[in-house]
User: What shape does this take?
Amino acid sequence: MKILVINCGSSSIKYKFFLMPSEEVISEGSLEKIGEEGSEITNHHKGLRMILEKIDGVEAVGHRVVHGAEEFTRPVLINEEVIRQVKECSSLAPLHNPANLEGILACLELLKGVRQIAVFDTAFHQSIPPKAFIYGLPYEFYEKHKIRKYGFHGTSHHFVAQEAAKRFKKKLSRVNLITCHLGNGCSMAAIKNGKSIDTSMGFTPLEGLIMGTRCGDIDPALITHIMHIENMTAGQVDRLLNKDSGLKGISGISNDMREIQAKARQGNKRAKLAVEIFVYRIRKYISAYMGALGKTDAIVFTAGIGQNQPALVKYICKGLFDNLRVKPKVMIIPTNEELMIARQTY
Ligand code: ADP
Assistant: This one.
C-alpha cells in the first residue's frame, strides 16, 4: 500500500511517500515559504497540488496534526466530525492546527476517495493520569478552559519506545522507559508498561527542559515581574520565553548545541554554563521519572542532540545509576516521526 505522509507547517509542507508494510521510502521532499511575499506557492492547496503532480498512486494519506486535546487518543480516519473537532482544538495550538487543517482540506479535495488519517502529537500522552496532568490552579480552569498538561512530540516518544522494546525483544506493554527527545525542542516522557504516564512539556511546548530558544521550567511569578521591570507586554514576554531564552538566551551565542559546544571548548564561560544547565535539567527529570516508574528498563535518547551526541548522552547519565542494584540500559535510537505516521496510517 502506498502511503503519503504530510506535515504542513504554517509556511512549509514536508512529505514522505512510503510503500507499506515494507517501509520503503519511494520519495520525499519539502516546500518552503508558502504564502510568503514573492513566493510562487501562494497557499497549501497549491503546494500540495505541486507535490501530487510528482507522485503516483497514493492509496492513503497520514497527516501530522499537532493538537488533539482530549478528543483524540489515537489516530483517526478523517471525516466531517473529525475536521470540526480539529478546528475546535485550534484555540490550543493557534500556530499549528490551522496549517495542519489546510493540508487535510486540500488533500480531501485533490485526492477524492482516498482515505486520510490524522495522527496527533498529543495522542500518546493522553494516558497520563490526572495527578500528573492537572496543574495547581483552580480546578475550574481545567473545566472551563481545558488548561492542563497535554505534552507534545508524542509520535517521536512512541516511535523510539517501540524501537526500544524491539531491542529488548519484548512487547511495548512489557517495558518501562524514559524517552528523551532532545532536538531544538526538547521533551521527556515516562513510559510505564508502554504507556506515557508523564511528560515534561505542558499546556504548551514551553514547559520542562531547557531547549534551543525556550526557557522550560521557571518560577511562574517571573512573568508578571518581568512585565513590570522591563515594561513588556504579554506578547513580548511570550516571545522572550519562547524565542530568546533557553540555550540561546543563556549562552548569548546560538540556539544550536554544536555551536555552543565549540565555544565551550574554546573556554567560553556562558557556553559552558548553558551546557551545564541543559544537562542538569535532564538529570533532574530522569531522576524524577525513575521515581515515578519504579523499575526503569532503559533511558532512550533521540532527535538532533540525543541521537548524534553520544558523548553528551554519557555525560548526562554519568553517575546517575550508581546507587541502583539493577541499572537501566542507555539507548540511542534515531527518531522517525514520518515512519511512525505511515505505520499508524497503514
Ligand atoms: P528540530 O527539533 O528543529 O527538528 P533537530 O532535531 O535537528 O531539530 O535538533 C537540533 C539540535 O540538534 C541542534 O542543537 C543541533 O546542534 C543538534 N544536532 C543536529 N544534528 C547534529 C549532529 N549531526 N551532530 C551533533 N548535533 C546535532
Observations:
- The chain has a mean pLDDT of 96.
- The first strand starts at residue 2 and ends at 8.
- Residues 125 and 196 are 5 Å apart (CA to CA).
